[in-house]
UniProtKB/TrEMBL annotation:
Coiled-coil intervals, chain numbering: none
Main location: cytoplasm
Protein name (database record): tRNA threonylcarbamoyladenosine biosynthesis protein TsaE
Protein family according to the UniProt entry: Belongs to the TsaE family.
Reported function: Required for the formation of a threonylcarbamoyl group on adenosine at position 37 (t(6)A37) in tRNAs that read codons beginning with adenine. Is involved in the transfer of the threonylcarbamoyl moiety of threonylcarbamoyl-AMP (TC-AMP) to the N6 group of A37, together with TsaD and TsaB. TsaE seems to play an indirect role in the t(6)A biosynthesis pathway, possibly in regulating the core enzymatic function of TsaD.
Species, as recorded: Nesterenkonia lutea
Residues passing through the membrane, by range: none
NCBIfam families: T6A_YjeE
Keyword Nuclease: no
InterPro entries for this protein: P-loop_NTPase, T6A_TsaE
Entry keywords, A to Z: ATP-binding, Cytoplasm, Magnesium, Metal-binding, Nucleotide-binding, tRNA processing
Subcellular location(s) of the protein: Cytoplasm
Length: 194
């Protein structure tokens, strides 16, 4: 388990919690569109979930709904990307904190872009909230949970020969997942209608 994953779950102090079942990629995109309506300049969205839970996929749909430029892909090796708004909307700053710590995040100087952007941080739970919005600040915590992925990696399976590389319906539509959205701080005192 990465040092960045919080084994105890979300931080204390949530104001509310909403859980939504996302049946497929279309439902994930619709949920991201609903979130985009709620988010504006200065907002922080912390994404949590295991590998393959859909954090980057959700961010792609969020970026499309916010109408930002550039292809949104996993920022794992670049750590941070800024996607500029096409019109009057906010920019989108997409960060992956998987391979860093609080000092590494501070070196990205995310506070300089916060005021004009929606900042989405994958793998940042318990690390970015205080750094970016302070102890009395506001943020959203979104946890994506795929039921079909093991919580802990199991022993490697025996090698198998794969000869059919065509996509299944599940590959095309995406897997079912639960989205647990939590609000923190005074700006998110009341739950939004989703």
């Amino acid at each position: 388990m990465s040092a960045l994953q919080d084994p105890d779950g979300p931080p204390p102090g949530e104001r509310w919690r909403i859980e939504v079942v996302l049946e497929d990629l279309q439902a994930t995109a619709a949920f991201a569109g609903d979130l985009a309506v709620l988010l504006g300049r200065g907002d922080l969205l912390v994404l949590t979930g295991g590998l393959g839970a859909g954090k980057t996929t959700l961010t792609q749909s969020l970026g499309e709904a916010l109408d930002v430029t550039g292809r949104i892909s996993s920022p794992t090796f670049i750590m941070s990307r800024v996607h500029r708004a096409r019109d009057a909307g906010p920019d989108l700053v997409h960060v992956d904190a998987y391979r860093t710590d609080s000092a590494g995040l501070e070196s990205l100087d995310l506070s300089s872009t916060m005021a004009e952007a929606v900042t989405v941080v994958e793998w940042g739970r318990g690390m970015v909230e205080n750094t970016l919005v302070g102890p009395g600040g506001s943020w959203l915590d979104l946890e994506l949970i795929r039921e079909d992925l093991p919580v802990k990696p199991s022993a490697p399976a025996a090698p198998e020969i794969i000869t059919d590389f065509s996509e299944s319906e599940a590959d095309v539509l995406g897997s079912r997942r639960r989205a647990v959205l939590r609000g923190y701080g005074p700006a998110w005192a009341d739950p939004p209608a989703l």
